């Protein structure tokens, strides 16, 4: 398990290589890459973060994923700081022997990152600044997993 | 007590972090919020809508009734919007 | 939409670059990479293919995915021929504005590739050769999508 | 008629592709399978378990009752196992 909370950008290939090096042999890899979505007049995305808590919380999410699915490895990177449109924000890589495990675990991790990892996004437009609000739909996604 | 603020809460209080002497009768997060709101308008404004605020003690999410002590790191922030 | 039925290996980074170049601006990218799972005494995986039909069938699957979810782009590569353990077999890349679209579409495409695209796998072990049988569980996955 | 065989069906028939003159009374895939099975043991063996065989006419999956004509490309194969 590798968790990286960082201001730095990451390179998808390098990350997959590190992932493979640290994994036992798996047949299936699921990758999610979240980027700053370009929107009209959006100049930057400021991501505030509580790094010590983020590390703990994401580790906890990953542990739950390991307990729910049969996984070989998990790699999670979440950036914070000032990002531009199209910049990478988050990378989740999950590996397993069978595709359904890594796909389900990947979605689970993203669903929890969205609403339970301590990051806060602020959109800087040319004419205004807006703190992103937590979405009801994101919270609802968590209910499907029940409690654990 | 070490206090941390994030996102718009940090903007309103105009601090990201501070170390404060808290009266010993303050035992829970709820009481801490009431106390801070009573000593300064900025805290009062930041903590106005309690339902929009989450708290962590030593990097673990807790509720308002969580007991706190001097050595704790207490953080205040809005609902998370990462990912 | 890019569909590539090929004997050649592919490079994940290059494929993602091509994908990005051919996409409008999306915020979310979901990637699935399927490889030959190393198993005891497995020497190679021979994948037979009906390329003309595979091209048609996968295009059809991709079109259905476009109609079911809001997607910016889809890229699918499926190899055939003789592959070694750990070799890449299949790559599905889906891009969308919101993560749930690209994640769901990616899983849908993989579910259909497994059971409706004309590829047949034969496992060559040191002591035997086995044509892989279609799994009941893979067929069941298709039922969740209903008819379209 | 252009015929194609894949996977273990191609192995049993020992051909991947062939062009055959089919009697004009053969109108459906089902009839074609019966005809082929009658002319050679290899076809008979390959098509023994009908439920394990799928067919495509001009690269489109069809059922046994599909009408076929001289110009068609008819393919025989087991259930798919790609991905």
Structure description:
- Chain A is about 35% helix and about 35% strand.
- Chain A has four helices and eight strands, in the order E-H-E-E-H-E-E-E-H-E-E-H.
- A four-stranded mixed β-sheet of chain A has the order 1-4-6-2, with helices on both faces.
- Chain A has about 150 residues and is of the alpha+beta class.
- The model of chain A has no long low-confidence stretch (mean pLDDT about 95).
- The longest helix of chain A is centred in the middle third of the chain and has 18 residues, at about 50-70.
- Chain A has one domain (about 1-145): Aldehyde Oxidoreductase, domain 3 (Alpha-Beta Complex).
- Chain B is an alpha+beta fold and about 80 residues long.
- Chain B has a single domain (about 1-75), classed as Beta-grasp domain (Ubiquitin-like (UB roll), Roll), CATH 3.10.20.
- Chain B is about 30% helix and about 25% strand.
- Chain B has three helices and five strands.
- Chain B is globular and about 35 Å long.
- The N and C termini of chain B lie far apart (about 30 Å).
- The mean pLDDT of chain B is about 95.
- The interface of C and D includes residues 89, 118 and 133 of C.
- Strand 2 of chain A pairs antiparallel with strand 2 (about 30-35) of chain C, so a sheet runs across the interface.
Short description:
The complex is a heterotetramer, with 2 copies of chain A (148 residues) and 2 copies of chain B (83 residues). By secondary structure, chain A is of the alpha+beta class. Chain A has helices at residues 12-21, 51-68, 99-116, 136-143; strands spanning 2-6, 28-35, 42-49, 73-79, 81-83, 88-96, 119-125, 129-131.
Topology (elements, then pairings):
The complex is a heterotetramer, with 2 copies of chain A (148 residues) and 2 copies of chain B (83 residues).
Chain A: E1 2-6, H1 12-21, E2 28-35, E3 42-49, H2 51-68, E4 73-79, E5 81-83, E6 88-96, H3 99-116, E7 119-125, E8 129-131, H4 136-143
Parallel strand pairs in A: 1-4
Antiparallel strand pairs in A: 2-6, 3-5, 3-7, 4-6, 7-8
Helix pairs in contact in A: 2-3, 3-4
Chain B: E1 2-5, H1 7-13, E2 17-19, H2 29-39, H3 41-46, E3 54-57, E4 60-62, E5 73-77
Parallel strand pairs in B: 1-5
Antiparallel strand pairs in B: 1-2, 3-4, 3-5
